[in-house]
Design a protein that fits this description.
By secondary structure, the chain is α/β, with parallel strands linked by helices. It folds into 2 domains: about 160 residues, Glycogen Phosphorylase B (Rossmann fold, 3-Layer(aba) Sandwich), CATH 3.40.50; about 170 residues, Rossmann fold (3-Layer(aba) Sandwich), CATH 3.40.50.2000. Helices cover about 40% and strands about 20% of the residues. The strands form 2 sheets. Strands 3-2-1-4-5-6-7 form a 7-stranded parallel sheet, sandwiched between helices. The protein has a 6-stranded parallel sheet with strand order 10-9-8-11-12-13, with helices on both faces. Helix 10 links the parallel strand 12 and strand 13. The radius of gyration is 21 Å and the shape is globular. The two termini are about 15 Å apart.
């Protein structure tokens, strides 16, 4: 009898956790069946429709932060109908709505540096996506955890074969707040442009900070240097990363970065902030700058451009590529999650 893995989310948008589950659900052992339950009425239908049809979704359509019996009963019923089940939560607070299933194994994957982990001992297994995050959870909450890196199928990613005459920078991510450091990146671009260096930055993603970023861009005359592309689907991302010359991940906080891994697999040099999690994931051959420091980031970008011009960067990107495919390949991730599901 197949084990039914129920992945439960409050919301389901385009983030690392959602793409992680997509890879797991579509590639795991035939002895496992995967379903996804989304509680809130906050989800991306295009993303949901991109899943293999064997992965079944249940949309509870609860209004965020609302209380009520109807949505609770619908959730309980959707879980109860699945026999031989394992509940896999992707946010710690989901324990408050699944704790009543006493005899059902409950797993939690922690995707970021979360300081509000409560009721954690009600989970049977806790997974972190990087060693730095595992150390943080162990030290902060005295919990036993395991590390399973996110994985990417590098065979789907187009590899870079030439650099552009005008250097093109790329950032991919949300910017609902300042955590991703887009403001630092735009300031660094401004510093470089003021030095007379012509570079272009493309920002893929969306967020509530868009207006403030546009205001800074316009007030500093960067309209011909910084461009927003909005949301782009994963297949398109895999094909376009190699069109750019440098990927930049200027995050103030980051436990992992799929964008960094994807860029390494595309043999595009990456620049990352020197924060826990991101520094380890990006390996020893990425460019690193002091977090929060736009001047240092600008200098890093200039150093990367110099290496691109004299082609020394090729040795760096080859080593980063090997680091990524060795540690973050999809087959290793699937094997580790299959072992996890079969451990109980």
């Amino acid at each position: 009898m197949k084990k039914n893995i129920l992945h439960i989310f409050w919301s389901f948008t385009r983030g690392g956790a959602e793409y992680l589950v997509k890879e797991i659900a579509e590639n795991s052992s035939p002895s496992l069946s995967h379903s996804i339950i989304v509680i809130n009425n906050h989800y991306d239908l295009d993303l949901i429709n991109s899943f293999n049809k064997s992965v079944k979704f249940t949309l509870i359509n609860r209004k965020p932060k609302s209380y009520g019996v109807f949505w609770s009963l619908k959730l309980i019923n959707s879980i109860f109908l699945k026999k031989n089940r394992i509940i896999h939560c992707h946010n710690y607070s989901l324990i408050y709505v699944v704790w009543i299933f006493f005899r059902t194994p409950k797993f939690l994957t922690i995707h970021g540096f979360d300081t509000k982990i409560k009721k954690h001992r009600l989970f049977d297994r806790i997974v972190c996506v990087s060693p730095a995050l595992s150390d943080y959870v162990k030290n902060s909450f005295n919990l036993e955890v395991m590390t399973i890196f996110n994985g990417v199928d590098n065979s789907l990613i187009k590899v870079k074969n030439k650099f552009n005459h005008t250097i093109k920078l790329l950032f991919i991510g949300r910017f609902d707040d300042d955590i991703k450091g887009v403001d630092i990146l735009i300031k660094a671009v401004n510093i470089i442009v003021n030095l007379g260096i012509d570079i272009h930055l493309t920002i893929i993603g969306k967020g509530s900070k868009h207006a403030s970023h546009i205001q800074y861009i316009e007030s500093n005359g960067l309209n011909n240097h910084v461009f927003f592309k909005g949301l782009v689907d994963r297949t398109t991302v895999y094909n376009l990363i190699s069109d750019y010359d440098i990927s930049v991940i200027p995050s103030r906080k980051e436990s992992f970065s799929l964008f960094a891994v994807e860029s390494m697999m595309a043999k595009v040099p990456i620049i990352v902030s020197n924060i826990p999690g991101l520094s380890e994931v990006s390996g020893n051959h990425s460019f690193k700058f002091e977090s929060e420091n736009a001047d240092d980031l600008a200098q890093c970008i200039i150093s990367a451009i110099t290496e691109i011009k004299n082609m020394k960067v090729l040795s760096r990107t080859e080593k980063s590529f090997n680091h990524a495919v060795t540690n973050y390949n999809i087959n290793l991730m699937i094997k580790n999650y299959d072992n996890l599901y079969n451990s109980l």
